[in-house]
């Protein structure tokens, strides 16, 4: 039998709070970066750099943190922003990249005008933990 | 059971606390997702105003989309540069969802059945063999695809697919199931009182029409061939395929 990892990964989340948004049964990406973040997480798990379940648990935590500090109808909710946060934390934890590497790359991508936000480049991976 | 992807997974290790916490979000998921989409592009000013009313720690910069885009780019660029993944792996993962599996496959099958009565007959009697003759992605024959069975609506019979066990679903043809399909209340009520449930979906089935429910399992994944809409006589097969919805192929909507 064939089980496509991609399908397994997404169906394993069905009915759970961390399940990706869909439209007409298809995954829905509102922005290109959402699609990119989704693809990178699945590619890493598929190639064995972390277990999918570990990513799911990171995502559950990242969503839980948001939920415990916002009302559930807060329109600033962004599923894929939580996804990005979970992914950043996991690749750092798995030592695939260092926080410094990530911060340096962010700095080189962002405009120089973004310097005033430099303190918030990452979502403070450890210090925000409840 | 090995054919069931959800069962082949290791059991989630921490289903206690998070599930409790997420139960409310499950209910809100659809409306939240719908509300987020339009705000994503043009909501920067609104977000700034809201941000001033919440603690700084949770405030979003007005350019958060730009920032998130940079975060995603930084991630991917770094991982590729370090040789951890390749751009091709990421592309393959994404193209699987976007081009290989989804309701567009089912739509092609249904459109062919609408224009070709012999195909429709073959589809209902031996779904896998009939589908194999169509030009569909090769993954259709594997994974969950080999278990698909089609049932056709008619003026006398309306078909509804459900899965009382969990959420078995003919995903190569229909894409991933909507959130409510897995809802325990929907599963139980659709089996017990399909006519009432369909009415709540906005589908009023005449009392003279028999409703048949088909309970999917790891062995058989059902999908519905809806009736061809009236006034579509002049349409091409490709145009017809665009009319077919996942809901139509689940039997919770007309096409």
Strand and helix map with partners:
The complex is a heterodimer of chains A (130) and B (255).
Chain A: H1 5-11, E1 22-23, E2 26-27, H2 32-46, H3 52-69, H4 79-93, H5 99-109
Helix pairs in contact in A: 2-4, 3-4
Chain B: H1 5-8, H2 17-42, H3 44-51, H4 64-81, H5 87-100, H6 103-115, H7 117-125, H8 127-132, E1 148-152, E2 157-162, H9 171-174, H10 184-192, H11 194-200, E3 210-215, E4 221-225, H12 237-243, H13 246-250
Parallel strand pairs in B: 1-4, 2-3
Helix pairs in contact in B: 6-7, 6-12, 10-11
Oligomeric state, counting identical vs distinct chains: heterodimer
> CATH first level of the largest domain in chain B: which class?
Alpha Beta
Radius of gyration of chain A: 15 Å
The major β-sheet of chain A equals:
2 strands, antiparallel
Specify the number of helices of chain A: 5
Secondary structure: helix percent of chain B: 40-55%
* Cα shape of chain B: globular
Fraction in beta strands of chain A: under 5%
Give the name of the CATH superfamily of the largest domain in chain B: Nitrile hydratase alpha /Thiocyanate hydrolase gamma
Q: Identify low-pLDDT runs of chain B.
A: 1-57
Poorly predicted ranges of chain A: 113-130
């Amino acid at each position: 039998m064939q089980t496509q990892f991609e399908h397994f990964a997404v169906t394993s989340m069905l009915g759970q709070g961390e399940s990706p948004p869909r439209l007409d049964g298809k995954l829905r990406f509102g922005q290109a970066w959402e699609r990119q973040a989704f693809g990178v997480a699945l590619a890493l798990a598929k190639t064995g750099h972390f277990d999918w379940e570990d990513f799911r648990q990171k995502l559950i935590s990242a969503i839980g943190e948001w939920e415990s500090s916002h009302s559930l109808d807060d329109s600033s909710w962004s599923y894929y922003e939580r996804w990005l946060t979970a992914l950043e934390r996991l690749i750092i934890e798995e030592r695939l990249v260092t926080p410094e590497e990530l911060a340096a790359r962010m700095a080189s991508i962002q405009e120089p005008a973004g310097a005033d936000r430099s303190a918030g480049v990452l979502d403070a991976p450890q210090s925000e933990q409840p | 059971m090995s054919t069931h992807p959800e069962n082949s997974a290791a059991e989630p290790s921490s289903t206690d606390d998070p599930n409790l916490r997420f139960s409310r979000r499950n209910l809100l998921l659809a409306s939240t997702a719908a509300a987020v989409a339009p705000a994503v592009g043009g909501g920067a000013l609104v977000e700034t105003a809201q941000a001033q009313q919440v603690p700084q720690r949770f405030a979003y910069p007005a350019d958060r989309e730009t920032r998130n885009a940079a975060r995603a780019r930084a991630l991917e660029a770094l991982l590729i540069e370090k040789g951890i993944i390749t751009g091709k792996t990421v592309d393959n993962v994404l193209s699987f969802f976007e081009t290989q599996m989804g309701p567009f496959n089912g739509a092609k099958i249904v459109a062919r059945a609408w224009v070709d009565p012999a195909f429709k007959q073959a589809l209902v009697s031996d779904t896998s063999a009939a589908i194999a003759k169509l030009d569909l992605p090769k993954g259709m024959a594997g994974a969950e695809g080999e278990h698909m069975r089609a049932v056709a609506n008619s003026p006398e019979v309306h078909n509804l697919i459900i899965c009382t066990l969990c959420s078995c679903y003919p995903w190569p043809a229909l894409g991933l199931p909507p959130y409510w399909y897995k809802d325990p209340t929907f599963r139980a009520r659709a089996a017990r009182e399909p006519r009432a449930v369909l009415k709540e979906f906005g589908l009023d089935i005449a009392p003279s029409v028999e409703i048949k429910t088909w309970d999917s399992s790891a062995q058989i994944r059902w999908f519905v061939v809806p009736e061809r809409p009236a006034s579509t006589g002049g349409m091409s097969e490709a145009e017809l395929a665009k009319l077919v919805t996942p809901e139509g192929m689940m039997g919770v909507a007309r096409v």
